[in-house]
Design a protein that fits this description.
This protein is an alpha+beta fold and 158 residues long. The protein folds into two domains: 36 residues; 116 residues, no CATH class. It is built from two helices and 13 strands, in the order E-E-H-E-E-E-E-E-E-E-E-E-H-E-E.
Length: 158
């Protein structure tokens, strides 16, 4: 190491070693985050319409929702089966439309736009409610009520 004007500098090999350590650390963090997001229950459904999650438009298709924890709020990931579309979203606990009956993914409808409202898991007494985006909040305020209220799509566990 060289010291100039009170600063310590490293040789090129020292800088490379530091970058390798940083890369390994970041890789471990990403791996842990991925494992955490997929450690909870998983449900799947064929969603027959385009929809919005946290302001991100997702196309119709077969989707999987993986949550980080079944017992409390937290985060969840919705991912299209072909891997071409996905979105993380924050969930909180709420009342289920049909508690314990079957797994379902729920949407709010405004005209021809569908917004992810949440999901429930078979055997559970609660539902996981997705947070509402600013855009959806504006739509909800402008509309007297969502058209046809909540739309529920049957889901199955995996």
């Amino acid at each position: 190491m060289k010291q100039a004007l009170g600063f310590t500098t490293r040789s090129a090999s020292g800088q490379k070693a530091g970058l390798v350590m940083l890369s390994v650390g970041l890789g471990c963090l990403l791996l842990a985050a991925s494992a955490r997001a997929s450690s909870g229950p998983r449900i799947c459904a064929r969603i027959p319409f385009d929809f919005v999650v946290r302001g991100q438009a997702l196309p119709a298709g077969e989707y999987t929702i993986e949550s980080d924890n079944r017992e409390s709020g937290g985060s969840a990931l919705i991912r299209r089966a072909d891997g071409k579309a996905s979105a993380y979203f924050v969930v909180s606990l709420g009342a289920s439309i049909n508690p314990g009956k079957e797994s379902a993914i729920e949407f709010r409808r405004y005209g021809d736009q569908y917004y992810l409202a949440g999901y429930s898991i078979q055997g559970g007494s609660v539902a996981f409610q997705a947070t509402i985006s600013h855009r959806e909040a504006r739509l909800a305020k402008a509309a007297a009520r969502p058209d046809q209220g909540m739309i529920s799509v049957a889901a199955y566990g995996r």
